[in-house]
Structure formats: structure tokens, C-alpha cells
């Protein structure tokens, strides 16, 4: 019987004769209040799914007659207050799911009779105050989920009888103050999750008896002050998570006995002042996360013994002044994160010994003045992030020895120049120099970066010119020059960038002219280039997108080039009236009568359109966007064709938007074209249309 999602079902019929019923699915019957007592007659039932019956208040005691039931799913029965004691008769039940039964206050002691139960889920039972001691009778139990039971204060000592338990999840039990010492009897336990037990002050010494434990999660145990020394007995432990244990001051020296530990998480342990030297005994450790340990002043020399370490995260260790020279012994290290280590002044020269390092993140190390020459020995380094290193004045010439793919120097506001050796980074794909406000010029060798795809120079306010060698970057796809307020011109060689797709010139306030740009260009953004007058270029890419917002000094020829560019996208430029280029114009309203000649009307009609928007009201929101909806009416036949422009963004007054449209199947030469804008706060002020022939596309792109 499958009645799932019957949201209006309030009661079931009498099931007295349903002795052969094998399956009953009632999931998400959200109006069902109770089950009939006759359900106890369905003694052959194999599956009873009641999950999501959020109005169900109780189960009939006859449920205990279903002694062969292999699974009972009550997940999400949020109105269920209690279980009948007869539940204990379901002795063959291997799995019981009570997850999300948030009104359930207690469990009957008979629950302990479920001796074949292997998996018990009742996380999210937020009203449950205690567990019956009989829970210790569930000797077959392997999985016990008690997650997010926020009212649970203690665990009965009988839990220690669950000697076959492999997984115990108590995460989010925020009122739990302590664990019973009997927890140490769970000798087969492999995973213990206590994360989010924010009232837990300490762990019992007996925790050290869990010799088969492989995973221990204590993250967000914000009241935990220390770990017992017996923690060192967990010789099979592979993962220990102590992240956000904000009251933890120190680790016991016995932590060094965890010789099989592979992952140690101590992130956001903001009270942790030091690490024991025994940490160096964790020779199988692969990941050590100390990010956000803001009180940590130094690392022990023994850290260099972690020869199998692959990831070391020291981000936001804001009190860390230096790294020990022994850091260079971590020859298998692949990732080193030091971002926001704001007190770090220098790196030891031994850093150059990390020959397998692939990623080095030094972003936000605002006190870092220089990099050691040995940095050039990191021949496997692919990513170097120095963004926000505001005190960094120069890079060592050895930087050119690297095989970098990504170099981020954004926000290095004290960086005056780049070494010419930067041109040796022939595998570099992304170079970010945005915000390098003291950078006056780029070395000629920049043109050697033949595999570079992205170059960011935004906010390089002291940069006066680009070297002509920039034209050698034949694989460059994106060039960002926004807010380069000292840049007067672009080199003519920029036209050689045959793969350039995006050029950002926003707020290049001194830029006077643009040279011939590459034909590949598909996006040109030149907002607020207030000195821009001339365009010595055309835009043949049929998908090009042009934005010349607030470029009021553009001369007539430059404006004509933009307006007459053929594109399947749109162009945008300042203007207060539709240009004469558009054969048919309306200065009020949004309707045009158009008369075509036979050449314009074959199998379809193509038009170039232009609009000027008017705001209904005073406030202009630059984040607004919208589309133009056009209706083409054939005067003779009365047939209508609906068309739509590309999405226009941003919406501004005193700006022209041009785009192309095609009306397929139009045969009449006399048309009425009506413009409407799809935003209530905007309307069409002026509009224009120019019919296009096939050859017009080529004519326009050659202007």
C-alpha cells in the first residue's frame, strides 16, 4: 500500500483483514494524526514507512505485534510525543529511525529489548531530556546517532555496555556537560563525534581505552580546556579534529604518541599558545591545520620531523613572528598556507628546500618585507599568492626560476618594480598586479610570457604606459586596466593580441585614444574614460559587446564606429538623441512606421535598432537591467512578430543602446515597429531603426 504524499489524508481505514499486507508507505502524509490499532493485524508486514507524517501524535500499542518488522522509519514525525512501550516487542528490528522527532520527550525503557537493533537514529530530537539506562541492552548496536539533541544533559553509564558500537555521534548536544567513564568500554568504536558539544568541559581519562578509534571529532567544543594525557593511547587514531575549541590552552605531550595520526585540525583554537615538541613524533601526519590560532607565537623546531606532511595551514596566525628553519625539512609538503600572518616579517631561507611545494599562500602578510633568494628553488611551485603584502618592496630575481602557473601580487602597494627575470615564467597563465599603486612600469621581458591568459593591472595608478612587448602575449585572453589613472595611451602592438577576448578600461581617466584592437575582442568596457576622444579601430567580432559609459569626449567618428558596429550583442555609449544613421526615428513614444524596398525583404528582415531610455521618477539605480520588446506588424496582412533585445545593463539615462534584430518570414514592405521596455520604472524616450542588407554587416565592420 503506497499512499505517500497524500497530504490531506487524516486517517486510515480499518486494517483488520490486512494480514497479507507486506508494505505500507505513508511518507509525507502530513495531515495523518494517528494509525488505527488494527495495524497490529498486519503481522507479515516487511516495511512501515511513516516518515514526514508531521501531524502524527502517537503510535498504537498494537504496533508491538509486528514482531517480524525489519525497518521502522519515523523520521520527521515532529508531533510525536511518545512511543508505546510495546515498541520493545519488535525484537527483529535492525534499524529504527526517529530523526527529527522534535516533540519526543522520552524513550520507553522497553527500547532496551530491541536486542537485534544495529542502527538507531534519533538526531534532531531536541526535546529529549534523557536516555533510559536500558539503552545499554542493545548489544547488537553498531551505529548510534544522537546528533543535535540540545536538551540532553548526560549519557547513562550503561552506554558502556554497547561493546559492538562502531559509530557514536553526539554532535550538537550543546547541553552535554560530561561523558560517563564507561565510554572507555566501547573498545570497538571507530568514530566518535562530539563536535558542537559546547558545554563539555573535559573528557574522561577512560577515553584512552578506545584503542580502535580512528576518528575523533571535538570541533566547536568551546568549553573544553584540556585533553587528558590518556589521549595518547589512541594509537589507531587517524583523524583528530579540535577546530574552534576556543578555550583549549595547550595539548598534552602524549599527543606525540598518536603515531598513526594523518589529520590534525586545530583551526580557530584562539587560546592555544604553543604546541608541544612531541608534535614532531607524528611522522604519518599528512595534514596539519592551525589556521586562526591567533595566540600562537612560534612553532617548535620539531615540526621539521613531520616528513610526510602534505598540507600545513597557518593562515590567520596573527601572532606568529617567524617560522623555524626546520620547516625546510618538510620535503613532501605540497601546500603551505600563511595568509593573514600579519606579524610575519620574513621567511627562513630553508623554505627553498620544499622542492615538492605546489602552492604557497602568503596573502595578507602585511609585515613581510622581502622573500628569500632561495624561493627560486621551489621548482614545482604552481601557485604563489602574495596579494595584500603591502610592505613588500621587491621580488628576488630568482623568482624567474619557478614553473608558476599563477602569480598573485594584487594589493602589493609598496612594490615599485618587477625583476626582468619575471619574463622567464613561460608557463604562467595568470598574473595579477591589480592594486600595485607604486608600480611605475612593466619590464620589457613581460612579453616573454607567451602562455599568459589573464593579466590584471587594475588600480595600478602610477603606471604611465605599457611596454610594446605586451603585443607578444599571443595567448592573452583577458586584460584588465581599470582605474589605471595615469595611463595615457595603449601601445599599437596591442593589436597583435590575436586571442584577446576581454579588455577592461574602466576609469582610465587620462586615456585619450584607442589604437587598432584585435579582431578577436568580444568585450570592451570603457566606463568613465573622461578624456577618450578617438577610436582608431573597428570591431569585426559578430558577438562583440561594447560599453562606453560616460565617455562624453568621444568625437563624431568614434561615435559612428560604435553605433555602426554589427553585433549580436549590444553597444552602449553616451548620447541625448538617436543619430541620423538610423533611417527611421521617433523622438517621442516608441512606435515607427517603416517602408522597405524589395531588397530588404527576402526570407527575413534584419534591422539595427537604437533606443534612448527615460526614467519614470528621480532615483536611478545603476544595478537595474532590462530588455526591449519589439512588435513588428505587417500593415497589409496584419501579421505580428514578437522580438526581444539582449539584456541591457546597466540602465542609464542620456545613453544610447544599439542592437540588431531579425524578423523571419516578413514579406510585407510596410511595417509598424513598436518598442516597449520591460521595466515599469523606465520607458522608451527615443527610438530608431535602420533596415539592413546582408552586405551591410561587412560594410559596418570595415568602418
Mind explaining what this structure looks like?
With 703 residues, this protein is mainly beta. Among the domains are: 395-537, Leucine-rich repeat, LRR (right-handed beta-alpha superhelix) (Alpha-Beta Horseshoe), CATH 3.80.10.10; 578-701, Jelly Rolls. 2% of the residues lie in helices and 20% in strands. The protein is built from two helices and 34 strands. A hairpin with a 5-residue loop joins strand 30 and strand 31 (640-644). Mean pLDDT is 93; it is low at 697-703. Pfam families: C-JID, LRR_1, LRR_14.
Characterize the largest beta sheet: strand count, sense, and whether it forms a barrel.
28 strands, mixed
Instruction: State the secondary-structure class.
Output: mainly beta
Distance between the termini: 74 Å
SS elements, strand count: 34
Task: Give the strand content.
Answer: 15-25%
Q: Specify the oligomeric state.
A: single chain
Question: Summarize this, please?
Answer:
It comes from Arabidopsis thaliana. Residues 573-660 form the C-JID domain. This protein has 703 residues and is mainly beta.
Describe the protein's topology.
Layout: E1 23-25, E2 47-49, E3 71-73, E4 95-97, E5 119-121, E6 143-145, E7 167-169, E8 191-193, E9 215-217, E10 239-241, E11 263-265, E12 287-289, E13 311-313, E14 335-337, E15 359-361, E16 383-385, E17 406-408, E18 430-432, E19 454-456, E20 478-480, E21 502-504, E22 513-514, E23 523-525, E24 534-535, E25 545-547, H1 556-563, E26 570-574, E27 584-586, E28 591-595, E29 604-615, E30 628-634, E31 640-644, E32 655-664, E33 670-677, E34 682-692, H2 694-701
Parallel strand pairs: 1-2, 2-3, 3-4, 4-5, 5-6, 6-7, 7-8, 8-9, 9-10, 10-11, 11-12, 12-13, 13-14, 14-15, 15-16, 16-17, 17-18, 18-19, 19-20, 20-21, 21-23, 22-24, 23-25, 25-26
Antiparallel strand pairs: 26-32, 27-34, 28-33, 29-32, 29-34, 30-31, 30-33
Amino acid at each position: 500500500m503506497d499512499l505517500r504524499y497524500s497530504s490531506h489524508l487524516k486517517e486510515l481505514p480499518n486494517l483488520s483483514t490486512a494480514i497479507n499486507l507486506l508494505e505500507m508507505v505513508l511518507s509525507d502524509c502530513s495531515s495523518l494524526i494517528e494509525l488505527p490499532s488494527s495495524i497490529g493485524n498486519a503481522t507479515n508486514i516487511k516495511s512501515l514507512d511513516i516518515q514526514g507524517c508531521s501531524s502524527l501524535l502517537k503510535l498504537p500499542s498494537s504496533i508491538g505485534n509486528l514482531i517480524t518488522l525489519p525497518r521502522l522509519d519515523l523520521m520527521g514525525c515532529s508531533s510525536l510525543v511518545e512511543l508505546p512501550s510495546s515498541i520493545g516487542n519488535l525484537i527483529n528490528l535492525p534499524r529504527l529511525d526517529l530523526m527529527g522527532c522534535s516533540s519526543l520527550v522520552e524513550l520507553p525503557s522497553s527500547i532496551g529489548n530491541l536486542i537485534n537493533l544495529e542502527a538507531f537514529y534519533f538526531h534532531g530530537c531536541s526535546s529529549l531530556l534523557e536516555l533510559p539506562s536500558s539503552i545499554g541492552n542493545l548489544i547488537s548496536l553498531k551505529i548510534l546517532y544522537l546528533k543535535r539533541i540540545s536538551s540532553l544533559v548526560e549519557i547513562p553509564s550503561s552506554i558502556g555496555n554497547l561493546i559492538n558500537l562502531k559509530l557514536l555521534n553526539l554532535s550538537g548536544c550543546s547541553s552535554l556537560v560530561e561523558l560517563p567513564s564507561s565510554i572507555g568500554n566501547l573498545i570497538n568504536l571507530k568514530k566518535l563525534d562530539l563536535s558542537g558539544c559546547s558545554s563539555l568541559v573535559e573528557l574522561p581519562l577512560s577515553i584512552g581505552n578506545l584503542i580502535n578509534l580512528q576518528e575523533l571529532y571535538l570541533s566547536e567544543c568551546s568549553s573544553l580546556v584540556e585533553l587528558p594525557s590518556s589521549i595518547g593511547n589512541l594509537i589507531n587514531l587517524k583523524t583528530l579534529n579540535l577546530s574552534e575549541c576556543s578555550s583549549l590552552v595547550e595539548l598534552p605531550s602524549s599527543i606525540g604518541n598518536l603515531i598513526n595520526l594523518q589529520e590534525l585540525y586545530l583551526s580557530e583554537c584562539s587560546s592555544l599558545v604553543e604546541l608541544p615538541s612531541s608534535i614532531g613524533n607524528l611522522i604519518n601526519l599528512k595534514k596539519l591545520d592551525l589556521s586562526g590560532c591567533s595566540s600562537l607565537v612560534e612553532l617548535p623546531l620539531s615540526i621539521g620531523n613531520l616528513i610526510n606532511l602534505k598540507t600545513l595551514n597557518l593562515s590567520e596566525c596573527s601572532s606568529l613572528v617567524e617560522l623555524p628553519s626546520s620547516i625546510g625539512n618538510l620535503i613532501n609538503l605540497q601546500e603551505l598556507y600563511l595568509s593573514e600572518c600579519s606579524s610575519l616579517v620574513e621567511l627562513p631561507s630553508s623554505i627553498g628546500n620544499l622542492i615538492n611545494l605546489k602552492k604557497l599562500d602568503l596573502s595578507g602578510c602585511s609585515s613581510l618585507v622581502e622573500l628569500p633568494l632561495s624561493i627560486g628553488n621551489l621548482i614545482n611551485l604552481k601557485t604563489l599568492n602574495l596579494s595584500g603584502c603591502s610592505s613588500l618592496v621587491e621580488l628576488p630575481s630568482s623568482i624567474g626560476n619557478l614553473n608558476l602557473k599563477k602569480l598573485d601580487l594584487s594589493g602589493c602597494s609598496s612594490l615599485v618594480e618587477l625583476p626582468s627575470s619575471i619574463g622567464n615564467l613561460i608557463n604562467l597563465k595568470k598574473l595579477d598586479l591589480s592594486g600595485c599603486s607604486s608600480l611605475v612600469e612593466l619590464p620589457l621581458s613581460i612579453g616573454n610570457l607567451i602562455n599568459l591568459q589573464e593579466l590584471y593591472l587594475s588600480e595600478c595608478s602610477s603606471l604611465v604606459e605599457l611596454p610594446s612587448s605586451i603585443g607578444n602575449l599571443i595567448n592573452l585572453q583577458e586584460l584588465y586596466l581599470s582605474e589605471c589613472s595615469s595611463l595615457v595611451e595603449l601601445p599599437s602592438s596591442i593589436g597583435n593580441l590575436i586571442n584577446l577576448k576581454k579588455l577592461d578600461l574602466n576609469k582610465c581617466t587620462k586615456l585619450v585614444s584607442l589604437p587598432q584592437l584585435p579582431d578577436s575582442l568580444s568585450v570592451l568596457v570603457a566606463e568613465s574614460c573622461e578624456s577618450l576622444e578617438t577610436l582608431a579601430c573597428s570591431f569585426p567580432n559578430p558577438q562583440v559587446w561594447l560599453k562606453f559609459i560616460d565617455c562624453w569626449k568621444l568625437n563624431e567618428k568614434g561615435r559612428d564606429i560604435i553605433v555602426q558596429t554589427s553585433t549580436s550583442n549590444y553597444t552602449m555609449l553616451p548620447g541625448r538623441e538617436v543619430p541620423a544613421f538610423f533611417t527611421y526615428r521617433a523622438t517621442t513614444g516608441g512606435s515607427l512606421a517603416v517602408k522597405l524596398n524589395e531588397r530588404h525583404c527576402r526570407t527575413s528582415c534584419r534591422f539595427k535598432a537604437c533606443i534612448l531610455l527615460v526614467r519614470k521618477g528621480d532615483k536611478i539605480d545603476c544595478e537595474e537591467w532590462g530588455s526591449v520588446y519589439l512588435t513588428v506588424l505587417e500593415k497589409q496582412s496584419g501579421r505580428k512578430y514578437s522580438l526581444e533585445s539582449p539584456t541591457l545593463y546597466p540602465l542609464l539615462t542620456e545613453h544610447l543602446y544599439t542592437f540588431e534584430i531579425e524578423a523571419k518570414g516578413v514579406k510585407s514592405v510596410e511595417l509598424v515597429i513598436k518598442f516597449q521596455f520591460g521595466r515599469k520604472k523606465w520607458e522608451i524616450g527615443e527610438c530608431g531603426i535602420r533596415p539592413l542588407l546582408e552586405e551591410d554587416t561587412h560594410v559596418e565592420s570595415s568602418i
